[in-house]
Design brief:
Largest sheet: 7 strands, antiparallel
CATH superfamily of the largest domain: Reverse transcriptase/Diguanylate cyclase domain
Distance between the termini: 149 Å
CATH architecture of the largest domain: 2-Layer Sandwich
Number of domains: 4
Number of strands: 24
Helix content: 40-55%
CATH topology of the largest domain: Alpha-Beta Plaits
């Protein structure tokens, strides 16, 4: 105002002020001052509006940038169907936006059916190993369980929140202590929500300058998390559907391969091989329930096991541990009749020389009847053309469902093979019956002719069997038939692919595909001598018998005399030669081998 007064005096000479009405002057002066003040206020308002407009422009520019970032990120995320690449891209966008030094994504995990957890599936800037109860362990095995505590209450709200305070101390001390959350080195957690479900968590560490991400940036993190969660959920479902399709294709292929196979051992071996291959397992075994002992017995094994051990176990020549129902993981699966899946090696009995990181056992059920248990252990990974143990590999829900389907197939195959076995097996001796002999003989003979190989046929006849029945009765005769058949099967099991049949009455047949005559004769001689030496308890004493045998090869009888007729002629020669002998029918004639013992009538002591 003083400034205005000085201006006014400079305009009006002092001697003239006296002639001007003082009151009018004051009025004009006050009006001038009001105008100046109004102009100043207007300028101030305009400056404030300009500043506000500039702030709004910056804020709008940031919003536009964020919207463009979200839009471009959404487009980019939607084009990625590989989960690992998607998570890496999501983390990269968030780190770059806030100069965060590290990040991690934890996704819902089904490795432990009893406890829902979230496991690290991608990370950046975090040490690859962390200290666990087992020592140093891969960061991708780090997981935290879901509970009802304060931390999880905040996570379920879906809002971004800081897990450390301004002093960088944990806000959730109990959770950090119990779950070792310092491993993640995070300051801010971003829940990944799809629908009403928490499918994962994004963690971000401090900024490069040591500061924390400002709370004003949380809204953008929530927006991009919503976009990422939708794409992560879609990718997880895509991968799950892909695995389901692969599993269905695996089951279809197995069914196609085994449609015309009736031998359970062959069926089970194919099932184990499929399980190991499809589930990337290190080992697999099949246990069957022994109805007499009520225990589980290992019948077949497959996988990363020495070949000699596999052959010994699968052939039955090597005895293995027997499990009670309820004992161990397999025993629990048998007892509960439900799958048992353990991915925490601390809960697995480490009784063997090699560590078991994960195990999955499923019951083999036919209807409501427990038949056995199918078990796989450990995962493997590809290393070039080879496979190696994967200590981080674990079995998931999809693996469990596939193994259950394979177990269902095994149960159906077991029942199928039993029905088939019943139809082709002689009830008294347990050997294949005459009808099956006719089919196999025709099949193998045709195959040998086409391949130019030898099919050797041996015919066995128990000496003086009618007289034996007349002397000791038919029950004693049945005992001799059953025990002689068992001995024949024992001797024949030492030769691969050798098959034994009860042809009728007291006659048995032996088929040796791709055999040589010298080996066949040695086999039959071993059986003949053993049969003559065996004694069986009966009616307070012992009884026994001798056998006569005839043998011929398809190599000598492709034309003219049939192979069966040739072997039968040789058998007749053994009987004519005194019994308890082996005779060989060659193309040039019959050779009867000398017996080490004189022929004997049915014996009793």
């Amino acid at each position: 105002m003083a400034c205005v007064l000085r201006v006014w005096k400079s305009i009006i000479p002092a001697d003239e002020v006296t002639v001007i009405d003082q009151e009018k002057l004051n009025t004009q002066l006050i009006s001038l001052i009001d105008q100046v003040e109004k102009q100043q206020r207007l300028i101030g308002e305009l400056q404030a509006r300009l500043h506000h407009a500039e702030e709004q422009s910056v804020e709008l520019d940031n919003k536009v940038f964020e919207m463009r970032t979200l839009l471009q990120s959404g487009k980019g995320f939607s084009q990625i169907l590989d989960l690992q690449k998607l998570l890496d891209a999501f983390m990269s966008v968030c780190r770059e936006r806030y100069s965060s030094i590290n990040s991690a994504v934890l996704l819902r995990d089904d490795l432990e059916p009893e406890q829902l957890s979230y496991r690290v599936r991608a990370c950046f800037g975090i040490p690859p190993l962390f200290r666990s109860a087992y020592g140093d362990e891969e960061i991708f095995m780090f997981r935290i369980p879901r509970d009802q505590g304060l931390l999880w209450q905040l996570i379920h709200q879906g809002n971004v929140f800081a897990v450390r305070d301004l002093r960088k101390l944990p806000r959730f001390e109990s959770a950090f202590r119990n779950w070792n959350l310092n491993v993640l080195q995070s300051d801010v957690w971003v829940p990944l929500i799809k629908g009403a479900e928490v499918i994962g968590i994004l963690t971000l560490g401090e900024c490069e300058d040591g500061s924390q991400i400002a709370e004003s940036n949380y809204s953008f993190l929530e927006e991009i998390a919503a976009v990422a969660a939708t794409n992560i959920d879609s990718t997880l479902k895509y991968e799950k559907n892909t695995r389901i399709l692969q599993n269905l294709r695996t089951l279809y292929d197995v069914n196609q391969q085994l449609t015309n196979v009736n031998d359970f051992k062959h069926l089970a071996e194919e099932t184990l091989e499929t399980a190991v291959r499809a589930l990337s397992a290190q080992k697999a075994n099949l246990m069957l329930l022994n109805p007499e002992t009520g225990c589980l017995e290992i019948k077949l094994v497959h996988g990363d096991i020495p070949d000699s051990t596999v052959k010994a176990i699968n052939s039955g020549s090597l005895s293995t541990r027997v499990f009670e129902v309820g004992e161990g993981v397999a025993g629990r699966a048998a007892q509960t009749r439900r799958p048992v899946r353990i991915n925490d090696r601390g809960r697995i009995d480490q009784s063997g020389p090699y560590p078991v990181y994960c195990i999955l056992s499923v019951p083999i059920l036919y209807g409501k009847t427990l038949e056995g248990v199918l078990t796989i252990t450990n995962r493997v990974k590809r290393n070039g053309s080879e496979t190696e143990l994967d200590p981080m590999g674990r079995f998931g829900e999809d693996d469990e469902q596939l193994l259950m389907s394979l177990a269902d197939q095994a149960a159906a195959n077991l029942n199928k093979s039993r029905l088939y076995s019943t139809s082709i097996t002689d009830r008294l001796t347990g050997l294949f019956n005459a009808r099956h002999f006719e089919n196999r003989f025709s099949e193998l003979l045709s195959r040998s002719v086409q391949a130019g190989s030898n099919l050797i046929l041996g015919i066995v006849d128990i000496d003086h069997f009618k007289a034996f029945n007349d002397t000791y009765g038919h029950r004693a005769g049945d005992l001799i038939l059953a025990q002689t058949a068992r001995l024949l099967q024992e001797v024949a099991s030492t030769v691969p692919r050798c098959e034994c049949f009860r042809y009728g009455g007291e006659e048995f047949c032996v088929l040796l595909p791709d055999g040589d005559m010298a080996g066949a004769v040695a086999l039959l001689q071993t059986f003949r001598v053993s049969a003559a030496q065996r004694r069986y308890e009966w009616a307070g004493g012992t009884i026994g018998c001798t056998v006569s045998l005839g043998v011929a090869s398809s190599g000598d009888f492709n034309h003219g005399v049939s192979l069966f007729e040739a072997a039968d002629q040789a058998l007749y020669a053994s009987k004519e030669g005194g019994r308890n002998r082996v005779s060989v029918r060659h193309a040039s004639g019959i050779v009867t081998l000398p017996s080490e013992e004189e022929p004997k009538a049915p014996q009793s002591v």
